[in-house]
Design a protein that fits this description.
The chain has 299 residues and is of the alpha/beta class. It has 13 helices and 14 strands. A five-stranded parallel beta sheet has the order 2-1-3-4-5, sandwiched between helices. Strands 7-14-13-12 form a four-stranded mixed beta sheet.
Length: 299
C-alpha cells in the first residue's frame, strides 16, 4: 500500500508531536507545521493530505487554506473545526476544503478521512478490500497472558493507554478490549468491558430461577454499595474465568460480504482474523461501517 504523507498544521506543540506518533502507528508519514506560515513552506515537501486547525495565531486556518488552494488547488485539506461551528465548516468547504471534522475528533475517523482524501486526490477508484485490509492488527491491542488476573488486565490496559492523546482537537480512544494470549501467543480469548460488567453481577441474577432476584433488585438498601464490593471481590479472579473464549474467526483473504454475512448470522460484533493458522488481527463492526460510508461518499 502507498504510504500517505500528511501535513499536520497546529500551533500547540504537545498536540503536534503526539499526533505524529499516533498517525505513524496508523501507517502515515507525518510532516509537522506550527503555523500557517510554516505550513506554506512545508508544501515543498509534497504532502498528500493536509490536516489544518482553524484556530491558530498568525494566519488562521481559513487564511492558510485559501493560500494553500491558491498554490496547490488539487491538494486535499481536512479542517478541524470547533464543535457546532457550522458557519466555519461551511466557509472551509466554500474555500475548497475536502472535508471538515468537529473537535474533538476520533483518530480512527480521522485516519479514514485521510485515506478518502488521498484516494480522491489521486483519482484512485475504490477497490473493495479483504478482511485483512480493514482489520485492526493484534499489535494495536493490549495483550496479557492467560494466567493473568482481572487486576493484571486492568493494569495492563491502563499502562497501554498512558500514551493516548485526548485534547480539544483529537481523541485516540484506543481499544478497550484486552486480548488474552496462550503461551504459544495464539489468542485464547478477549476480555471486553461487557465481560467485566457481567462478572460483577451477583450470581443469582443469572440463575435459571433467581429466587431472590425479583424481590431484591428493587431494594435500594440491598443494592447500595454492591457494585464496589463486587468489583473488589473479582479483581483477583483469573481472567480466563470471565473472558469471552469463543471468538468467531475468519480468514484474512475473506471478502467483505463474507465478513458482513458472518457477523450478522452468528451474530458477532468482532471476529478474529487468521492468516492460515496465525492470528493476525481483529475486525469489528466499526470497520465495516467505515467501508459502507466510504462507498456512499464516493458514489
Amino acid at each position: 500500500m502507498v504510504k500517505i504523507k500528511v501535513l499536520m498544521v497546529d500551533d500547540e506543540e504537545r498536540f503536534r508531536t503526539t499526533t505524529a506518533k499516533i498517525l505513524a502507528r496508523k501507517g502515515f508519514d507525518t510532516i509537522l507545521a506550527a503555523s500557517g506560515e510554516e505550513a506554506l513552506e512545508k508544501l515543498a515537501e509534497k504532502p498528500d493530505v493536509v490536516i489544518l486547525d482553524v484556530k491558530m495565531g498568525g494566519l488562521d486556518g481559513h487564511e492558510t487554506l485559501k493560500l494553500i488552494k491558491d498554490k496547490l488547488p488539487e491538494l486535499p485539506v481536512i479542517m478541524l473545526t470547533g464543535h457546532g461551528d457550522m458557519p466555519g465548516a461551511k466557509k472551509a468547504l466554500d474555500t475548497g476544503a475536502f472535508d471538515y471534522l468537529a473537535k474533538p475528533c476520533d483518530v480512527d475517523l480521522l485516519s479514514t478521512k485521510i485515506q478518502d482524501a488521498f484516494e480522491y486526490a489521486t483519482k484512485a477508484p475504490y477497490v473493495e478490500k479483504l478482511a485483512k485490509g480493514i482489520m485492526i492488527p493484534l499489535s494495536e491491542y493490549t495483550q496479557i497472558p492467560l494466567n493473568s488476573t482481572v487486576r493484571d488486565a486492568i493494569k495492563a490496559l491502563e499502562e497501554s493507554m498512558r500514551h493516548l492523546l485526548a485534547t480539544d482537537r483529537l481523541m485516540d480512544t484506543g481499544h478497550r478490549s484486552v486480548v488474552v494470549v496462550n503461551p504459544d501467543n495464539t489468542v485464547a480469548g478477549l476480555l471486553s468491558p461487557l465481560d467485566l460488567v457481567d462478572a460483577i453481577r451477583p450470581g443469582y441474577l443469572s440463575a435459571p430461577k433467581p429466587s431472590m432476584a425479583d424481590s431484591l433488585q428493587y431494594s435500594t438498601m440491598f443494592w447500595q454499595g454492591l457494585f464496589s464490593s463486587r468489583v473488589k471481590e473479582i479483581m483477583g479472579n483469573p481472567v480466563r474465568d470471565i473472558m469471552s473464549e469463543s471468538i468467531p474467526t475468519i480468514q484474512a483473504d475473506a471478502n467483505l460480504m463474507d465478513v458482513a454475512n458472518t457477523m450478522v448470522t452468528l451474530p458477532a460484533r468482532r471476529m478474529l482474523v487468521k492468516e492460515g493458522n496465525k492470528d493476525v488481527g481483529i475486525v469489528r463492526e466499526q470497520e465495516l461501517f467505515y467501508e459502507i460510508a466510504k462507498i456512499i461518499s464516493s458514489s
